[in-house]
Description:
Elements: E1 10-14, H1 19-30, E2 34-39, H2 42-55, E3 61-65, H3 71-85, E4 88-93, H4 108-129, E5 133-144, H5 155-174, E6 181-187, E7 190-191, H6 196-200, H7 202-209, E8 218-219, H8 220-231, E9 242-245, H9 258-265, H10 267-274
Parallel strand pairs: 1-2, 1-4, 2-3, 4-5, 5-6, 6-9, 7-8
Helix pairs in contact: 1-8, 3-4, 4-5, 9-10
Amino acid sequence: MEKGVLAGRTAFITGGSGGIGGATAKLLLRDGAAVLLMGRRLSALETMRDKLLSEIPGGRVELHAGDASNVDDVKAGLEKAHKIQNRLDILLPTVGGHTFLPALMQDVAGLKADLDINLITAFIAVRYGVPLMSPGGAIVVISSNAGNRSFPWLSGYAAAKAALEHFCRTLADEFSGAKIRFNCVRAGMTRTDATGELFADQALIAKFAAQVPLGRLGEAEDIGQAIRFLVGPESSWITGHVLTVDGGQNLRRNADMTDIVRSFLGDEKTDAVLRGKSPA
Length: 280
């Protein structure tokens, strides 16, 4: 494989078997970086590795099975990544998820779960990854249009993504002395394994597409291209930035998903929460 602009650099990716993690890994490998993919299921990671190496022959892909919310698992993965080339240059915590539920049916445990998977997993990777990173390194986290636009029924997820964006801006300032850049990609509705069920609902997808000026929803590669830009030399003077990648949806609004809530709560409970009442 010919040397690329990222030759000699090493990347650590959580959510490594997912759509965005895999799409980004492919671009990093294409440009010469070595990559460590971390995820909970080794079999899924092996499948992703085989796919990547079939597309980028000669690439260096290592695997680490572990939970992105477990400090020991993440520390072990980071150390394994660093050992590949005795350096760590690119840190990509891509793990995320949401609870789709009215706030008045949410509980403290559910809210903490949204914060844990979207914010705390990123914190763990950053907290223990940065001390291993080389000057000139780059971190990118993944936010959502829910983080800066109201999105009823996703309050915990929206709060976690808003917090993640400010986490990025604040730590970009803190890490500037170490010459480590920290940026964020704010993604619109994107097709991945995690959103597969949503994309299967044509009525719902039509609502999202109606809010996208460019007329189509996102693919994992769209987000991967933005991440690749933010970790590469092309963006060497960019830090603390939230890059919106959504086909222009931020110019409009998030889709109204009230009909989806009615489909699983029923009219009586949905009407109750819309009036600010806890449903029976």
